Amino acid sequence: MYRVGPLARVNICDYIDTPLAEGERKLFKAIAGDAGAVNNSFYYHYARLIEILFSVEKIEALLNDPALLGQNIRAKAMINQTHGIGASEAPRGTLFHEYWVNDDGLLLKVNLVIATAQNNLAMNRTVRQLAMQYLDGTKVTEGILNRIEAGIRCFDPCLSCSTHAIGMMPMHVQVVDEAHRLLCDVRR
C-alpha cells in the first residue's frame, strides 16, 4: 500500500528551501520519531498547511524575481508526437496521464490514474480502523458517519466527494458479519 499527496510528499522531503516552511517540516518530522514517517492519515492536513506555507513564501520570492518580467518566459508547444505519457505532482497527489492525439493535435484518447484511485486502499483502511475503534455493535450512528467522512476528507478525494458541506457527504455504510450477512444498512 502507498499513499500520494501532501502527507507522502512531506514525509519523503529532506528539506524545504523557504525558512518558515522548513521550520514546520522539521516539527512535522519530529512527530514520527524513530518511525521515520508520519503515517496517521489525519496529518494530511498538517502536511497540506506546510505546503501552503511554502507556496506563499515561494510566490513572494518569485514576485521579486526580475527574470519573470523579461521577454523570454513563454514557450510555444507544437505537435511532435501523437502519443505521450507523463507524471505530474498535483495538490491531491501524483497524476499519471497518457494521451493520444491526431495530426491536428485533437485528443483521441486519454488515460488518467488520479490520486484518489491511488489512495483508495489507504482510504479503505482508514474507514476500517474507524469502524473498529468506534462501532459498538451494529448500529451506525451519525457520529460514526461524521468520523468516516473526516477520515475520507483527509485524503482530499476527487471533487465529487470533497465539495459537500460537512455532514452532507453522501455515504452508504453497511455492517456485515463474518458470513457476509447484512446487519445494518445506512444511507446519507
Inertia-based shape: globular
Radius of gyration: 21 Å
Beta-strand fraction estimate = 15-25%
Question: What spatial order of strands do you see in the largest sheet?
Answer: 1-2-3
How many helices? 7
User: Whole-number average pLDDT?
Assistant: 89
Q: Report the uncertain regions.
A: none
The number of domains = 3
First-last Cα distance: 29 Å
How much helicity do the residues have?
A: 40-55%
Element order, helices and strands?
Answer: HHHEEEHHHHEE
Q: Main beta sheet: strand number and arrangement?
A: 3 strands, antiparallel
Structural class: alpha+beta
Question: How many individual β-strands?
Answer: 5
SSE layout and pairing:
Elements: H1 6-12, H2 19-32, H3 44-63, E1 83-90, E2 93-101, E3 107-113, H4 115-118, H5 120-134, H6 142-153, H7 159-162, E4 172-176, E5 182-187
Antiparallel strand pairs: 1-2, 2-3, 4-5
